[in-house]
Amino acid sequence: MDLMWPLIPQQIRISNITCDSFKISWDIDSRGQERITHYFIDLNKKENKKENKFKHKDVPTKLVAKAVPLPMTVRGHWFLSPRTEYTVAVQMAAKHPDGDYSVSQWSEVIEFCTADYSSVHLNQLLQKAEAIAGRMLPFTVFYRNQQREYFQQDRDAQCRLMLPAVKDNSGSHGSPISAKLEGIYFSCNTEFNTGQPPQDSPYGPYRFQIQADVLFNHNTNIYFGDFYCMYTSYHYIILVLAPDGSKGDVFCKGRLPVLDRSSNRLLTCTEGEDGSLSFHHAQDVILEVIYTEPVDLSLGTVSQISGHQLMSLSTVNAKKDPSCKICNISVGR
C-alpha cells in the first residue's frame, strides 16, 4: 500500500458563487487518481467575534460525496445563507489494490462569501409581496419623519438639500441594496379613514412633505427592493425610485426587478386624459420608498405632527423573521 496516497488536496478554488450554491475544485496528483472514491468537504460559517458568545453556534457540517469530475457543484446539502462568509476544507479517500481505504489530511482552509439574491430570487419575493398587497389607495404626497435637528442642521442657504445615505442592513439578508444603495427613505402610506398620512411615526415628530409628482413621474423608474417582516404581523416592502439615467438607476438596473410605473400592485403613477398624474399605494403593507437622489427642502414643507413616536415600528437595521412563511423564499433569509 502506498502510505503517501492520497495526497493532501492542493490549490482549493471556489467559483460560480450564488446566494445558495458554489463550485469547488482542487489539484489532484494524476498518479493513482483512479483510486479516489470519495470527497469530504467541511463547510462552516466564519466565526463572527462580535456575536454573543452565548448564542447557539452552527454545528460544523461535513459533506461526504462520491468522487466526481471537478469542479463539483455544492447546492442543497446545506442551508446556505446569502451574503455570508464561510470557510471550507477538503480531504479525499482512496481505495487501494488490497481493498483497504486511506484518507488524506485536510487541505488548507479557504474563505469565501456567498452572493446576494439573484433576480430570480427577488422575483420570487416580489410575487409573495404582490399576493398580500391588497387593494390600491390614492395618495398625493411622499413624507419623511425625523427629529427637529435633522431639518435644522446647518445647510447651504442656497441649497438646502437632503442627501442620500447608504441603506442600512434592515430586511432580507440577501437583498442586493443593503449596505450598498444610496438613497433617502420616504413613506407614502395613508390612513384608510382619512386618506391622509398617519399622525404617528417611529422616526420623529417632524415631517417633511413633498408632492408625489416631484419624486415620481414619467422620468422616474421604479424597482422592487425587498419584502420582509420583523416578528410582527406588519409586512414591509422596499421600493426604489430612481430618475432615469441617474447613479441610482444605473445601480438598480440588472440587480432589481423593474416595475411598470403605471401598472403594478404596489405603487403606481398614472396619467389622466388631461395630463395630470394620480398616485396609488398598496393598502395592506407598509411601503418604504427609497429615492436615490438629493432632495431640496424648499420643494416641500416641514411641520410637526400631533401623534406619538412609535419606536417599536422602527425598521432601522431590523432583522427579518426567518420563520415567516409569508415573506420568505426557499433559500437563505
From TrEMBL:
UniProt cross-references to Gene3D superfamilies, sorted A to Z: Immunoglobulins
GO cellular component: cytoplasm
Domain Fibronectin type-III as annotated: residue spans: 8-117
Pfam families listed in its UniProt record: fn3, PHYHIP_C
Family matches, as CDD domains: FN3 (cd00063)
Family: Belongs to the PHYHIP family.
PANTHER family named among the record's database cross-references: PHYTANOYL-COA HYDROXYLASE-INTERACTING PROTEIN-LIKE, PROTEIN CBG15099
Functional summary from the UniProt entry: May play a role in the development of the central system.
Protein name: Fibronectin type-III domain-containing protein
